[in-house]
Amino acid sequence: MAQRSIPFFNYPALYGQDEAALSDVVLGVLRRGAYIMQRDLEEFESMLAEYLGVRHAIGLGDGTMAIHFGLRAAGIGAGDEVILPSHTFVATAAAIAHTGAKPVLVDCGPDHLIDADNARRFVTSRTKAIVPVQLNGRTADMDALTQLADAYNLIIVEDSCQALGSKFKGQFAGTFGITGAFSFYPSKTLGCFGDGGALVTNDDRVADVVRELRDHGRGNDGFIHRFGFNARLDNVQAAVLKYRLRNYHGMVERRRAIARQYESRLHGLNELLLPPGPDATPDHFDIFQNYEIEADRRDALREHLTAAGIGTILQWGGRCIHQFPDLGLHADLPYTERMTSRYLMLPLNLSLSDDDVNYVCDSVVEFYRS
Questions:
Q1: CA angle 157–161–166, rounded 5-degree value
Q2: Whole-angstrom Cα distance, residue 293 to residue 140?
């Protein structure tokens, strides 16, 4: 095979593939001097709410604040316990900890999402909420999680930062709980050119609280009603997101096509555990934010791919939350432990051509068959 260079994510391409149109969008905002809480933000929020079929979409500075504000608006605070999977970014646990509540870590299953049966074992009298993490563009089994929440009177606050457009049984990620959180970090399926996020909800009271929290506690009447934060989605990023959301369906379909190509080429390798394919079950519509596999001889495979010019990463730096001793969140999570010694993410983004994907697959096959 001729050597190629395939970065895990091609950040310059995020702008370069649509440079003229994006330049017009950004310059339009700059020429109007419309920087904070302007028309573009309102229009993006309306478009996002319409896309997801919710009453309220509220642009925020990042996905972490979207999770945190959802918990605060739901009344989670000191003395409470909140269940979440250890296989997530530390921001999910931080959003809980900053309310004063205790994050309680649970195991995941072979799809790398929260295991509802394992979560049930960690419910106590202090458990007040569960945060399903809709990871890698896939929505968890929300039937099982909703049954668990109903059985113990738990609030569901979704971390759907990696799952905009993903569905379970036809319902969008982020719309099952009292709130859903999304991230628009540049490498996300809908990415901007910096940090960005949003919270969605159908609860009018929650929406009012979150709008105050994001703007220093200020209400529509101009009065300060609570101590808040500076957590607004700036207008330049909102304009970029508004433009990109118009084409989002095609972006998702391209990601699913790449995932289908990976599955077709790699499914015969017994050394790999692939994520569920895009056509695996009618219950799930996955958007493939990431393509996270489990691999025998993971580290050697990664070295082989690096030598072939292929970028890979280990999500969360190769550690889940319970594996950071300084956080003090120790837990016995057998599947997560085994998974973190095997997991690896292959490139999946819109800069990849079919030939690029075939080159990655050829390199993986070459490693195991040699």
A1: 90
A2: 17
Taking only the tens place, the pLDDT of each residue in 185-205 is: 999 999 999 999 999 999 999
Same-domain check for residues 187 and 273? no
- The per-residue pLDDT for 135 is 98
Tokens coding 203: 């609860």
d(CA 258, CA 155): 36
Residue after which a domain boundary falls, among 245, 264, 294: 245
Packing angle between helix 204-214 and helix 63-73, nearest 10 degrees?
Answer: 130
Structurally, how many domains does the chain consist of?
A: 2
65 pLDDT above the threshold of 90: yes
d(CA 329, CA 204): 34
Average pLDDT over residues 227-247: 97
Mean pLDDT of the chain: 97
Map tokens 């929650």 to a residue: 206
At 290-322, the pLDDT tens digits run 999 999 999 999 999 999 999 999 999 999 999
Q: What is the DSSP letter of 277?
A: P
pLDDT level of residue 72 (50, 70, 90 thresholds): very high
Residues 225 and 284 in one domain: no
| Parent domain of 353 | 248-369
CA 151 to chain centre: 27
Give the burial string for 222-247 (b: 16+ CB within 10 Å, else e). eeeeeebbebbbbbbbbbbbbbbbee
Mark whether 34 and 117 lie in a shared domain: yes
Say yes or no: 178 and 263 in one domain.
Answer: no
